Amino acid sequence: MVVGAGFSGIGAAVRLREAGFDDVLVLEKGTQLGGTWRENTYPGCACDVPSTLYSYSFTPDTAWSRVFAGQREILGYLQATAERYRLGDVLRCGVEVLGAHWDEAAGRWLLETSDGPYSAAVLVLAIGPWHVPRRLEVPGIEDFDGPVFHTAGWDHSVDLTGRRVTVVGGGASAVQILPAIEAQAAAVDFFQRTAQWVLPKPDLPVPRALNRLTDCLPGVRSVLRVGQYALQEGFGYAFRHPQAARLLEAGSRAHLRLAVRDGQLRRHLTPDYRLGCKRLLTSSTFYRALSQPHVRLHPTAVSAVRGNEIVGDDGTTVHTDVLIEATGFHVGELPLAAALHGTNGQTLDEAWGGEPQAYLGTTVSGFPNLFLLLGPNLLGGSTSAITVLEAQLTYLIAAMVYLDQSGHRSLHVRPTAQSAHNTAVQEALATTVYNTGGCTSYYFTSSGQNTFAWPWSTGRLVRRLSQFDAAAYTFDTPARPLRLPAQARPQPVDRTADADAEQP
Fold first, then answer.
1. What is the maximum span of the chain, computed from C-alpha positions, in angstroms?
2. Which CATH number among 3.40.50.1820, 3.40.50.720, 3.50.50.60, 3.40.50.300 corresponds to the domain 2-132+331-502?
3. How far is it, in rounded angstroms, from Cα 367 to Cα 371?
4. 141-204+222-325: which CATH topology?
5. Phi/psi at 235 (nearest 5 deg)?
6. pLDDT digits (tens, 9 = 90+) for 16-66
7. How far apart are the first and last CA of the chain?
């Protein structure tokens, strides 16, 4: 059973079926697949990883129109991939998983969903870290006198033409939105609590001739992927060795000086922490948009809303017609964690105690046959999430094959293995820019633990996940083979004949 039909869920379904595990079912609460690329439709929405890296290695797309693909093109790529691999046979949209618990006697996960009960031998959570929007929580916002919406729920019925618009939040979505809307609006007020490091983004159109060339000569595509991977890993090296980040900081400062002539505005846009401490942003249009006469930067947080007035921490008050929350997501807060019960009835939320951890970011002690995709301490400021995902899928398939061939029913990661891995991760993070850069970021929990970043190279991550290490696990002997239907409703079931006929 795969929960979620974004990049992770689609990739998992394809790889599992290719490996011969035909009894796969994907449950998606949305009305269609796509995950974050379905939900985020705000103006300017695009990827900040080169398109050739932000695609499956098993389904490269040579027809990207730009170096950095936009939201619609990425969503189209996911839809085309699902169609190519006939995932419609195993995908059920509009089904929300409400909770699950491990049935020790049956050796299966029993799920509660909006479509009734399901059971699964193996549960793969492909929900992703950018899932639950972080809303602006300040006094008076519920009484705002006008449209207010989050970037992940963009209200396309609202026309910004000639209106006063306020954007709150200075992360990746804000950097993309501001240049996309400033020409429409009569005035834009931009509240940014913390200045960000921004590098130029070479977002160039891809010539059709190059696409045709990569179609004819697949080796060219491989060379492009290798080159872009090497560039991304160069950023990663700087993040692991903070002194090496100084060159990138110099490049970012030069970018700022060239784009912004106003000295006071430049000072407000200059970070006071090391590059890489927060997510590195890229844009060649953000600073230009901020320099427009009808755009005003307010280097402060928002403290309250009064009618159609936005009040900053520094006392700034601005009148606005439309309030846009570019405030990001609750990264690391797995939505199902509070409703996922393991071997002793404890929830995943309770087991984590506010500090998510997993063995190799993938399996969790006390939760047999559960696999997390893009789980704790696997990502970073430079890594393509697709590279990480595919490494995890290799590990998942190897684990499934081991269970199938060994005759075991379930696997349990040893607490000692998980603890040793997590200790090593935290010790390695201690010297990285993520931990020493002098900022606060979504990488950290409220207790100060970095539960997001991988402290080593992507190559090391891929190697660690390339083989299933059975010694890190204990196993249960099955009552029946794993390859019996992994997604079957518990018996007896009172359902219509049509519903039963849909069961893959």
1. 72
2. 3.50.50.60
3. 9
4. FAD/NAD(P)-binding domain (3.50.50)
5. -60, -45
6. 999 999 999 999 999 999 999 999 999 999 999 999 899 999 987 768 999
7. 12
